[in-house]
Amino acid sequence: MQRTGIARRLFILLMVAAMLVPMAVLAQSGSATAKGFGGEVEVKLVVADGVITELTAAGDDETPGVGTMALEQLPDKILASNSLDVDLVAGASVTSKAVLEAAAAALEAAGIVEGDLVKKESAQDDQPAKAVPAFDNPDVIVVGAGFAGVNAAIEAAQQGARVYLFEQNTAIGGSVRFAGGTSSAAGAKMQKDAGVEDSPENFAQDILRMGGGTNIPELTKTHTEHAAAAIDWLDELGVDFGDRQPKMSGSYDAFNVPREYRAQGGVKFIEAVAPLLNQQVEDGQVSLMLETRVDGLVIEDGAVKGVILYDAEKTQYRAPAVILATGGYGHNEELINRYNFAHVLTMSPPFCTGDGFVFAEQAGAAFRNMDYLPAYPGGVPVDGFDVSCTAVVSGLPSVVWVDKNGKRIVNEFDGLDSQRKQAYADAPENLVFMLLTEEVKTAAERPLLKVGGGFSGKPDEGWDYFGQLAADENCVFKGDTLEEAAQKAGVDAKGLEETLKAYNLAVEAGEDKDFGRPAESMTKLENGPFYLVKTYPYVMLTKGGPVMNSQAQVINQAGEPIPGLYQCGELVGGANIGGSANIGGLANTICVVWGKIAGSNAAEYALKTK
Question: 56-61 contacts: CB < 8 A, separation 24 or more?
Fold first, then answer.
């Protein structure tokens, strides 16, 4: 009897346990990927009882210190609110969107409907607090804590000025985190150690040769005279320049002597100078305010007296000198359309919105070389303004480039970088179409398209994406006849027929008289199917800017310095220093040379004015 009672109680307990099991929902997991700025972003998550309990985001190809911040910060935001309805990470919108897209797909893979998640209010502590200056009455205000702005703030502080440094993103660095690690100078220690004879005068003459005389000689002279000291300074700070051998340009038109120096990415530059900035912050000379955007300048009687913040109160901070270090306008489609291209894509960071150009214009600045923007060829506009797919633009046999009128425009195989860029600039509406046949496609040793952001794109193995776009008639237009492909693409069929006839005759003759393309890179394009691939130019850096003098003072339209206003970095306009050419390593070096010049002169002016 006793055993029977025990057995009965055990049975009841087991039944109760069995009844409780269905009440506890088992955790469900899912993972998915989405295309980020540099490559694939993967999100893994676990959901239980309508609550996301675990979420991780990873992407090996995202930009260190920019895209990686989205990978680090967004999971915490999603977990805190148990929702995908969260703000993007400032300055890393492409990666942020990829994280949210992958997270949504991961929920779906786990069998979870996003609307069934138990929503939670985000804690106030999760929101960034409004930046508060560490001290009052600054001498110098620097707008933008990219590479140039950081150098300007350090230099001004070292000259005795107290500095406010405003940055709209969540970290310093700006565009240099996306940049290659190339710099250039004549007479740097590395160049001398390699036995290369060079001089600032030779560098300036080289710029004149390549740039066509559109540079401002005073600025070119100042830059070439200070560049070597800038590179030596980075070298002394411990930047790893690899084999330390000066190089000829690998991507742009060549120098007359080797004077490029290459680090492993621009992020190495900001990492080298960050400790100097941190020391100035600790010493109370610099107040760094992140996630703080400037909306305008305080201008009185033609002089710049401070800045206005982008907040509800329109907070003003005043100082005798303001340095604009806001970067270019490469992510402002309206400004690019205004100054440069009718059709365009971008791989500029999303914070390059041209604020400094607007501020300088409000202050009455003169501008120069705004019409010059050597955008990269081959952006395929499959999805929005940001580059997500590019075409191979050199070394691909038998592909022919034409404009919307069907006219051939350049040596497609091995023309100069500057020639390919100019072809896009000159093409009507900046539209360029790449013509090939199924036979060319089948014989090609590599695919035409790269999927991903610009230079970091991955080859489209097997032409799969190409075929998908052709089926969707999204930028790739296929026709059994040349006329059919032309009609689908919006290219003048008659002009294209005449161009192809001339091209095929050149193949027969074994000589490309029009553009000088090597005969061995050309084969007849006779039999369909034909393909036309629509491409736009895409922007990385902008090249025009407000006029300044050798003290980095912004100049007004009467040719006079605007009191209290200085500038440095991409904003100054690389063409104003380097002319109408891509000068290897110029942009990164400008950030040091002109950051230091702006910081030093702004500090001197401010301390005399007070």
Answer: 57/99, 57/102, 57/103, 59/95, 59/98, 61/36, 61/37, 61/452, 61/456
